[in-house]
Design a protein that fits this description.
By secondary structure, this protein is of the alpha/beta class. The chain contains eleven helices and eight strands. The termini are close together.
Length: 375
């Protein structure tokens, strides 16, 4: 069955921008033909004495070069064999501006409406299930992805609450959360204790406690028949000497407790700290993607970003080209954010004109692939 194009898609616009077509590629028969043709025209133009004729020949040469590049060098995502990739963006919940206005702005920025929107919550009992945010996201045809921190914001040296969750001290909180989510009735993806295999969050590096807490909360939701929540196991990518056995599989709650897998990973670049350096998309993700195939669950890249750099647009183009051809990955969420107060890199796609333009081109081509999908 043919599906309708997603809301926000506007057919008829150019799918390929010439300025992004001159990257590395294989030399083919068209390249040789183009070279011989241009060389012949140049030699012939040297013998032409009439200025008007020379201008005409030079014009023909320039048009041959431009159109040759377009025909010979389609963008990676414009070639055959790609698949439709689900995608979304992070939008921070804050009182400084309207979150809903930011969702609307995202569609304007990217030319296509994102399918997911990611945001963060904590265990503060005064916040609970964000029903209004979930409803507003769905009103814009976006599935909310809630990253639940196993801590409470604004408490200084918070040591996390895995032990307390396991002991049942947060049962009342999670029961109310599940009841409200069930009453809402809309689909939500829940990232409970994301990046648990790192050492930068208070719930990190505690595999046994993490699994016990996850299973207790999961069982509460199932007991209350809250079935509109998809549970995403979302570790950080492996890095340095980290191994899949010790630093990935060791945290997995079990097939019966997990619906989908999400991987978080970033190219921090060369200037963030002494532990990070510029990495390609494959260097950041490939080993972890291979390791996650063992789970046999739908796989997403749940957070991805690239630091601001002169090489950023090329990195974005390479990432989009590869993920468009990678059937192992269903989708991704780009961490479209910059907070200078945290002294983190500028991840935003509009940090430079070329990166945003490349992403917009990809999003439009990617949207057309829905036509090839059956239900």
């Amino acid at each position: 069955m043919v599906r309708e194009l997603p809301a926000g898609f506007r057919p008829g616009k150019e799918m390929v921008s010439c300025r992004h077509l001159f990257g590395p590629r294989e030399v083919g028969s068209w390249d040789l033909f183009l070279f011989v043709t241009i060389f012949t025209f140049i030699q012939f133009s040297k013998k032409v004495t009439f200025p008007s004729m020379r201008i005409l020949l030079l014009s023909i040469i320039s048009h041959l070069f431009i159109w040759g590049a377009v025909l010979a060098s389609p963008t990676e995502w414009g070639s055959k064999g790609g698949h439709h990739v689900e995608w979304g963006v992070y939008e921070m919940l804050t009182r400084r501006y309207s979150w809903e206005d930011r969702l609307d702005q995202a569609e304007k920025d990217f030319g296509i409406r994102p399918q997911f929107v990611l945001f963060f919550r904590d265990l503060n009992t005064g916040r609970g299930f964000p029903a209004e945010r979930v409803e507003n996201a769905h009103a814009r045809e976006m599935t909310p992805v809630i990253s639940l921190e196993i801590s409470r914001w604004g408490r200084g040296n918070d040591t996390g609450y895995l032990k307390e969750v396991t002991e049942g001290k947060f049962d009342k909180f999670f029961r109310q959360w599940a009841k409200d989510a069930k009453a809402c009735g809309l689909a939500v993806i829940l990232r409970f204790g994301f990046e648990m295999n790192g050492d930068w969050f208070p719930w990190g590096n505690q595999p046994e406690s993490f699994i016990n807490a996850w299973r207790r909360v999961y069982n509460i939701f199932k007991e209350l028949e809250c079935n509109n929540i998809q549970w995403m196991f979302s570790p950080n990518v492996l890095w340095a000497k980290r191994t899949a056995k010790k630093d990935l599989y060791n945290y997995y709650p079990g097939d019966a407790y997990v619906d989908v897998i999400g991987l978080d990973g970033y190219n921090f670049g060369d200037h963030y700290d002494k532990w990070h350096k510029w990495q390609t998309y494959e260097e950041v993700f490939e080993s972890s993607i291979r390791a996650c195939m063992k789970f046999n669950k739908p796989l997403y890249i749940s957070e991805i970003g690239c630091a601001d750099d002169l090489r950023k647009s090329a990195w974005i183009k390479d990432f989009l080209g590869k993920i468009s051809k990678d059937e192992r990955i269903k989708g991704f969420i780009y961490f479209n954010h910059f907070n200078p107060r945290k002294q983190e890199p500028n991840w935003r796609l509009d940090s430079d004109e070329d990166s945003l333009r490349i992403f917009r081109e990809w999003a439009e081509v990617n949207a057309t692939r829905i036509l090839d999908m059956g239900e």
